[in-house]
Amino acid sequence: MIRVNGKRQSWYEGMSIKDLLEDLEDSHHYAVIRINDKHVSRPYFEKTLIPDNSEVFLISLIAGG
């Protein structure tokens, strides 16, 4: 089990950030995901595995002028 933005979420062995976003059916474009105290940028979402019992924070891309 992991927590995503404070909500419990199922976890499985080998789960990557990309897998998590697909499981959530989340269409937001995140620039960075924080797993515990580690920040991971978009190019590494597919390769970065999420450990069990992790705190995950989805950080949305914000742009403006």
Overall description:
Strand 1 (2-4) and strand 2 form a beta hairpin. The protein has a single domain, classed as Beta-grasp domain (Ubiquitin-like (UB roll)), CATH 3.10.20. The radius of gyration is 11 Å and the shape is globular. By secondary structure, the protein is mostly beta strands. It has a five-stranded mixed sheet with strand order 2-1-5-3-4, with no helix packed on it. The longest helix has 8 residues, at 17-24. The chain contains one helix and five strands; from the N terminus they run ββαβββ. The relative contact order is 0.32.
Terminal CA distance reads 39 Å
Series of secondary-structure elements, N-terminal to C-terminal = EEHEEE
In CATH, what is the class?
Alpha Beta
Low-confidence stretches: none
The CATH architecture term is Roll
Number of domains: 1
What profile does the largest beta sheet have?
Answer: 5 strands, mixed
Beta-strand content estimate: 25-35%
* Approximate shape: globular
Number of strands: 5
Topology diagram in text:
Blueprint: E1 2-4, E2 7-9, H1 17-24, E3 30-35, E4 38-41, E5 55-60
Parallel strand pairs: 1-5
Antiparallel strand pairs: 1-2, 3-4, 3-5
Which terms summarize this structure?
single chain; 65 residues; mainly beta; 1 helix
Q: What's this entry about, in short?
A:
The chain is mainly beta. It is built from one helix and five strands; from the N terminus they run ββαβββ.
